[in-house]
Amino acid sequence: MMEPSAYLLLSGILFGIGVAGVVARKNVLIILMSVEIMLNAVNVAFIAVGSYLGDATGSVFAFMVMTVAAAEAAVGLAILIAVYRLKETIDITELSVLKW
Amino acid sequence: MEPILFAIFGAISVGGAIMVVTRRHPMTSALYLILTLFAVAALFALRQAHFLAVIQVIVYAGAVVVLFIFVIMLINVPESRLPMERLTGLRFLGVTAAGLLILESALVARRFVMAGTPATDSGSVEAVGRALFTDYLLAFELTSVLLLAAVIGAIVLAKRKI
């Protein structure tokens, strides 16, 4: 079995791409998808090290992350639908009501 | 053999992720997200974590992304009214910060040397199920409560009249 270093590098790259997506895009749907990419990157790291150490804990935690990601995607999309009904836009700069 | 397959599926997942983040129409991004999730599932299977690989395909690619596609079709913003994406100064700094994050993770990964005892069957359904229902039983039950809360929340938020 390979050492997990390459998998950790891949996890970091995917996470960085997800962060770039969240920061640089205006479309709320694409921001939510970038969050899913970040969560997948974390799962890659969990599975890589967990399988190398022969422990099922890595898989169990990845399972938990997946569950939380699914719940968060559902609620986030429900919020998006509710806001879209009110404001007719999915542009995150127009949905911002905080002062700064 | 494993390094070659890792390189192939890693490249597919990174390429898919970059395409997700850079497409204009969210439907195209959702389809590239499916590609990325399948490549990540292949990486899971490569590490002998077969249970998680199947769960990734069923739950992530098969339910979460389908939910995304439903919402994209429900909201149905026409092509002309999609947000205009301009690369302003602050956003460019954000992308640069993400790139620095990647470089940092590369440094960390290089120095990551582990003394492990591989070749145990820890990713099979039996092993994960055993751990999930004995050591991590509380977490498992709490996720069921979490999912219930998410279902109730999603229904209440998306209803027209409460």
Overview of this protein structure:
The complex is a heterodimer of chains A (100) and B (162). Chain A is an all-alpha fold. Chain A has a single domain (5-87), classed as Helix Hairpins, CATH 1.10.287.3510. In chain A, 76% of the residues lie in helices and 0% in strands. In chain A, helix 1 (5-24) packs antiparallel against helix 2 (28-52) and helix 2 packs antiparallel against helix 3. Chain A is elongated, with a radius of gyration of 17 Å. In chain A, 61% of the residues are buried. The mean pLDDT of chain A is 91. Chain B contains six helices and no strands. At the A-B interface, helix 1, helix 2 and helix 3 of A face helix 1, helix 2, helix 3, helix 4 and helix 5 of B.
Task: Draw up the topology in text.
The complex is a heterodimer of chains A (100) and B (162).
Chain A: H1 5-24, H2 28-52, H3 57-87
Helix pairs in contact in A: 1-2, 2-3
Chain B: H1 2-22, H2 26-46, H3 50-75, H4 89-110, H5 125-133, H6 137-158
Helix pairs in contact in B: 1-2, 2-3
